[in-house]
Design a protein that fits this description.
The complex is a heterodimer. Chain A is about 70% helix and about 5% strand. Chain A is mainly α. Chain A folds into 2 domains: about 5-75; about 95-405, ABC transporter involved in vitamin B12 uptake, BtuC (Orthogonal Bundle). In chain A, strand 1 and strand 2 (about 35-40) form a beta hairpin. Chain B is α/β, with parallel strands linked by helices. Chain B folds into 2 domains: about 1-90 and about 185-270, P-loop containing nucleotide triphosphate hydrolases (Rossmann fold, 3-Layer(aba) Sandwich), CATH 3.40.50; about 100-180, no CATH class. In chain B, the strands form 2 sheets. A 6-stranded mixed sheet of chain B has the order 6-7-8-3-9-10, with helices on both faces. The longest helix of chain B is centred in the middle third of the chain and has 20 residues, at about 130-150. Chain B starts with 5 loop residues before the first strand and ends with a helix. The chains are: A mainly alpha, B alpha/beta. Chain A: This is High-affinity branched-chain amino acid ABC transporter permease LivM. Chain A: Pfam families: BPD_transp_2.
């Protein structure tokens, strides 16, 4: 028994050592010097030994009672979806506290942290939007950043050519982005899975290339500037530039550049809350149910009379609208947009947020958006390894929690009391009769 | 009552050079159980897919009797832009599948609610704002879902995931889901496949109850002859894509052509 264990441990260690040696030898064992290279194999061996030791330590922990407990826990929650019992406590109190905490954040945070919070909320919006498309409707969209760009450029170019302000852009952006979503989606929605992903990837690149190359209209790589926001004609700049009154003059307080960020943060926070509410409602609405049903089985949906093309179209349009909203906030926060903000990496990041959070889970997506935007800021010291850390995080998540951070919970439904009282009341079989 | 609910007239279905159904004609009477039987590969499921709008028949007509007179299923599928098999369901034909197709990661009630999407309020604004009309429609839909769960003895499983249910209950759930669309005709594709004898008995009771209590018209494909003979009023036998016998269960059971098709007697012997 004892020797058996030792043998397996030795085997594991040897295997890990060999594999990591193969991986590390070319990367850290050979150092380039001009046209020749220098051997630093001891470094690679050391690294490999470290990895092997880590593997053995993991196995040893796994053999103890505590380790087994942890492993058992990790294995048991792999099943993913559960249905609520209908007896859960209402989360209204916690939600209210979070809402108040969110509203009061600007009064505690400094400018740097507020900037991160705005960025995190923008990614929340993007994640929620993509979650409608990927998580609920099950359509893999790799070009989501295109709708983000549409929203951002709407404000920048609209201000330049049509004199649009922040508020009008905020209202127009969802419709314009939704329209773009419809234009893209209508011809491609008969495709499935991988093909759809490639078409949307192409669409994302098309938008970026157009923005980059249409010099006269978009300003090309030089980008376009975005006017600062206003509030009922009050401006947040030191002196009025858009024909209004500066905020600090109106209230008779000292000027601070922070007011603008306070304003953006508060509006963005309210918009995020509204979108979260709408998405949560959607999940118990017929439209949201049809999206999820389409994700589960398209043929069965058609057999139930669901128009699969139109249903997918609505998912695409609503997702795109949310992306457009996020774009407006991004533009007004940066004060400047150019095409480098809308690369494929951005799309991949948003998709990572949705996948990490758990497909279809609103809480998960918000948590993942916060983690994935705040973590890189905390990891400033390791800036060069940021993508590496992302990658490791992804791998670890996919091994331990393949269904995402937060489990999806399905709502429970109960018959109305009238029916309960009358036992099985004779209800009409045909829906027409109820209309 | 003179016009049959569903009238299949001279339907031929070709896949390239292969003829799956040749000149098939039969009718489904209102309020009864019609069974479509035949050996494997006889073209039953193809016929089914034509009727439920998943295939467009190459030739012939499939007429569903409605309030505005008979309606051709084929024209619904080929309607430009909005056309498709979903219109066939909306016209009143619901179906189940040979290999169960439930929404496995949704709860049982939700499965039934998706089926009622035509009567619930699909308006985005009313749903987000929870208007009284929206809530009433939802409540009625949930009650109707519970009604059908009760009919299928599934009430206890209402708030479980559909994928967790045992096989036999998944079968019944699929029937309940099809019934929730409020169909004139329900098409069951091998409902007893994979069921044990007691589950099969339960299923035949369910189907008979659908007919007797709800006046539902049923079209069923089935291999279990015991079940077919017990529940059906009218049997149509297909072999090699053609109708070889059509009539009451007794008539079909004694038809030499049917016996030959099932037992594999050579054609010369049948002609003698």
């Amino acid at each position: 028994m004892q020797t058996n264990r030792l043998l397996t441990l030795a085997k594991q260690a040897l295997l890990t050592f060999t594999v990591s040696l193969i991986l590390f030898a070319p990367i850290s064992g050979l150092v380039l010097e001009g046209f020749s290279f220098r051997n630093e194999l001891t470094r690679a061996v050391l690294l490999a030994a470290l990895v092997a030791a880590g593997r053995v330590a993991l196995s040893l922990v796994g053999m103890t009672a505590i380790g087994r407990k942890i492993a058992g826990k990790a294995a048991s929650n792999g099943s993913g979806v559960t249905v609520m019992t209908g007896k859960e406590k209402s989360p209204a109190l916690i939600l209210g506290l979070i809402f108040l905490a969110g509203l009061s954040l600007p009064f505690f945070a400094d400018k740097y942290f507020l900037g991160i919070a705005i960025l995190a909320l923008i990614y929340c919006l993007l994640g929620l939007g993509l979650n409608i498309v990927v998580g609920l409707a099950g359509l893999l969209d790799l070009g989501f950043v295109a709708f983000y760009a549409v929203g951002a450029y709407l404000l920048a170019l609209g201000a330049q050519y049509l004199g649009l302000g922040f508020w009008s852009a905020l209202i127009i952006a969802p419709f314009l982005a939704g329209l773009c979503g419809m234009v893209l989606a209508f011809p491609v929605l008969k495709m499935h899975g991988d093909y759809l992903a490639i078409v949307t990837l192409g669409f994302g690149e098309i938008i970026r290339l157009v923005l980059n190359n249409w010099l006269e209209f978009t300003g090309g790589p030089n980008g376009a500037s975005v006017p600062p926001p206003t509030l009922f004609g009050l401006e947040f700049t030191r002196t009025a530039k858009q024909g209004g009154v500066p905020l600090h003059d109106y209230f008779g307080i000292a000027y601070s550049a922070d007011y603008k960020f306070w304003f953006i943060y508060l509006v963005l926070f309210l918009v995020v809350c509204l979108v979260v509410y709408a998405v949560e409602r959607l999940r118990v609405m017929p439209l949201g149910r049809m999206w999820e049903a389409l994700r589960e089985d398209e043929i069965a949906c058609r057999s139930l009379g669901v128009n699969h093309v139109f249903t997918k179209l609505t998912a695409f349009m609503l997702g795109a609208s949310t992306g457009g909203l996020a774009g407006v906030f991004f533009a007004v926060h940066q004060g400047f947009v150019n095409p480098t903000s809308f690369t494929f990496f951005e799309s991949a990041l948003i998709l990572a947020i949705v996948v990490l959070g758990g497909l279809g889970s609103t809480v998960g997506v918000i948590a993942a958006a916060l983690v994935l935007t705040i973590l890189p800021e905390l990891l400033r010291d390791f800036a060069e390894y940021r993508v590496l850390v992302f990658g490791v995080l992804m791998v670890v998540m996919m091994i331990w929690k393949p269904r995402g951070l937060v489990r999806v919970q399905r709502p429970a439904f109960f018959p109305s009391t009238a029916v309960k009282g009358a036992g099985t009341a004779p209800l009409s079989a045909s829906p027409e009769a109820v209309r | 009552m003179n016009t049959p609910l569903l009238d299949v007239r001279n339907v031929t279905m070709r896949f390239g050079g292969i003829v799956a159904n040749r000149n098939v004609s039969f009718s489904v009477e209102r309020g009864g159980v019609t069974a479509l039987i035949g050996p494997n590969g006889a073209g039953k499921t193809t016929m089914f897919n034509c009727i439920t709008g998943f295939y467009r028949a190459s030739e012939g007509q499939i007429l569903l009797d409605g309030p505005n007179g008979p309606q051709d299923i084929g024209t619904l599928i080929t309607k430009p832009i909005t056309g498709g098999s979903h219109l066939v369901t909306r016209a009143g034909i619901a179906r189940t599948f040979q290999n169960i197709r439930l929404f496995k990661e949704m709860s049982v009630v939700e499965n039934l609610l998706v089926a009622q999407h035509l009567v619930t309020a699909n308006n985005l604004v009313s749903g987000v704002l929870r208007t009284p009309a929206f809530r009433r429609a939802e409540r009625e839909a949930v009650d109707r879902a519970y009604h059908w769960l009760g009919e299928m003895n599934l009430t206890d499983d209402a708030n479980r995931l559909a994928g967790e249910l045992p096989y036999g209950r998944q079968r019944r759930l699929e029937i309940a889901r099809a019934m929730c669309t409020g169909p004139k005709l329900i098409c069951l594709d091998e409902p007893a496949a994979g069921l044990n004898p007691s589950e099969t008995r339960e299923l035949s009771e369910v189907i008979q109850r659908l007919c007797k209590e709800h006046g539902q018209t049923v079209l069923v494909i089935e291999h279990d002859m015991g079940l077919v003979m017990r529940i059906s009023d009218h049997v149509v036998v297909l072999d090699h894509g053609e109708v070889i016998s059509d009539g009451t269960p007794e008539h079909v059971g004694n038809d030499p052509a049917v016996i030959a098709a099932y037992l594999g007697v050579s054609e010369e012997e049948v002609e003698k």
